[in-house]
Each structure stands twice: as structure tokens, then as C-alpha cells.
Amino acid sequence: MHILLIGVNHTTAPIAVREQFALSEQQLPDALHKLRNMKSVLECVIVNTCNRMEVYVVVDKMERGRDYVRRFVQTYFQASDKLLDEHSYMCEGEAVVRHLLRVACGLDSMVVGETQILGQVRDAFSFAVEQGTTGALFNKLFKEAITVAKRAHADTGIADHPVSIGYVAVELARQMFGDFRNKQVVIIGAGKMADLTVKHLLSNGANRFAIVNRTLENALQLAQTCRGTAHTFAELPKVLEDAEIVISSTGAEHFILHKTDVERVMRQRRHRMLLMIDIALPRDLQPTIHEVENVFLYDIDDLRGLVTFNMEQRQKAVSKVEALVARAHREFDEWLKTLGVTPLIGALQDKAQAIHSDTMNSLRNKLPELTEHELHIIHKLSKSMMNQLMRDPILKLKELSVQSDADEARELFSQLFALDEHATAADEQSRSSDRNVAVSDETLRPIAPAKG
Fold it and tell me: Of 92, 310, 406, 445, which is most buried with the most CB atoms under 10 A?
């Protein structure tokens, strides 16, 4: 079995392409189950954010797995061969491990070291677990990635200087207006990104907020944190008449504001300048809004060139985080290799247990006068002795499993303890539970065109 990844992100695809691969919360369960039910796929997790959509899978055979996973992406997202060839990438084996570790730590983000991606990776993994689409391999890998990312944030200082997308949006507004005091700020959406943006605005002196959301209850909750007013989407045109800064980050699947909407609002405003920043994906604001007189519209890709604030300090911590990633990568690789000896260890334990059971039964027959208490003591002591005798050989086998001659070591171990029959049975059980995993060492590369 092998690990495989296919995805698009901010470095391979512009926002218009990334929108095509965006998944709503309602779509995610269906996507996961359709992917998991495909031939060759044994485990799967989908990481879906404003800057990336990545499909992580464990497949039984690499070549067949590539074809099926690519077919899933093409079909589910209605993506042409040309679109995938130009904007997607595929990653296999050990490269997937390193990629996920770097993603979770924020090293692969548009904003290096940003912390929001850790929560997004954790949520993606937790949701996949809830949906029953993960197994032993991804349970280990994603937990390790989350642990390493937490350690990176706590120990290296890479997250000490805020440069999230929300932060950059606020910096852009500050450059244009200078002082936020008494400037009317309209926040469209009430999710995590909106909450983070409000916090950045408050720390920069903003004191007039209007929170607009599909559900009034969520708008009220966020409005209470900034002493703002809460509104539904139906009130949005009226709210925009008094706005100077608009920052939008909803989870809507379609535009919530069109050019014609803004034109009507601007006539009511007598064309006073309006800054609109769209940090949602899919985008909330129709791109042609920028054609309206005195409206300045920016989206996520526009902010890319502004991600320079505090980056020098963060870059100093990158090498420390890369060292953590490298160590975690090695440890996970060693864990994978030890899975190859799991059937042998199981076979040895099964054989020892069978011998122990036969011996206890023989003892009962030969010494019927022994009491249950005496038999219990003998059982406990003899089992302890058996486990102590097995401990060193098992530890040595695990050590040898990561050496270059691991196959020879396993064969010798099997012969020494006469485990052939036991190992075969244990190996079949291991395969059925997805524990016997072989990982190829491939590199990150553009996805290959579909065959035929």
C-alpha cells in the first residue's frame, strides 16, 4: 500500500482556478465517501482551504491508484485534462509525508508560518475520522503532523509576528486610510477568518463595526466582541452606504455582491471612496466591481504582493521548523518500516501464547491437586517469564527493520523461531487491517497526463 496526494494551491493555480476546486461544508462528506468508495482507495483525507485543495489517499497499488484518484478529481470538480496538467501537482510516498508536515507548520502557506492552516489540517483530519475514511496510516501521519506543527509554533517563534491573510487585509486598509478611528468597517461573514480580522482591526484602533451575516445570531455573537451592530444579508445594501472599508470572508458558493449592486450603493453614497477586500474562496465579490468609479477591490491573489510585513523575522525561524519537519519525517519513516515486521512479531507472540496455553493445560492434567490460586500464580509468573524472553528479540528485530538488510534479518528471524506458518497467518490479518504499508520515495512533481 502507498500514500498519494493530488492537489492545487496558491503557487500552482490563480484564484479563478482554485474556485473550481473549492468544497463547501455540505459537499465535503459526499466527496470523502465517493473517494473512499473508489477502487484502490483504502484511506482518504481532503484538506480544503482558501489557498489549497489537497486529496490525500492510501492506495493498494500506486499506478492504479494514480489513475483512480485523478479520475475522481476530474469528475468531481469537472476539471479537464488541460486544467489538471497546468495547475495540479502529484506527490507520492515519502514526499507526501514531508509535504503534509510542511503544510501543517505553515511553511507551504502564502503567509509563511501562519497558524490558521494548522487548525484547518486538524479539522480536515478530524472530519475524515468522523466519516470513517481514515485508518492506521493516516491516523498516525496526521496526528504526527499536528503535533509537530504545535511544537513549531511554540518553540521556534515562527508565529510570533502576525502576517495572516486577515492581517495583510488590515494592513492594506491601514495604508490607504492611515487611522481606523471613526472609520465605518463592514465585516461580511462571521466565521473564523472574520473573527481573526476583527481582532486585527481592534488592535489597530478600529472602533466602528457592522457585522453582516446570513444568520443574525452569528452576526450578533461577533458584533458583541467589537461593540458593533449586527445585520442580515438583506440589510447589506443599506449598511454599505455608510461604509468606508468592507472585508468579506463568507463560505458562500456564489457571489454575494455583484457589480450592479455596488453601482446602486455608490449612487446613494455620491461616489465616496470605498475599499473592498475579498478574502473568501470562492470569492464573495464579483471581480468586475473594480470597474465601478471610486471602488477599490482586492482579492486574495492581490494580497500576495503585500505579504512582506514581518516576514524577515519569520524567515529566521524557518530553518528551525525545517529541522523539526526533517526529524518528524525520519521518525515516521522508521515507524513505517517497522510495520513490515508486525506480522513476525505477531507470529512470535501467537506461537509463545500457544506454547504457554498448552503447557498450562498439561500442568493441570499432570498435577490435578493444584488449587485455582496456585494455578493463577504459576500462570502469571510463567507468562511474565515468556514476555521477558521475547522482549529483546522483538526490540532487536525492530532495530534491524530500518537497516539496509532488513529483508534478510526478517527471514533469519523467521527461521530461528520457526515462524513460517504463524507469520503467514499474521501477515494475512495485517493486510486486512491495512497495517502492512510500503512507501515509495518519490518527489513532488506536476501531475502526469491521464492515459488514453
Answer: 92
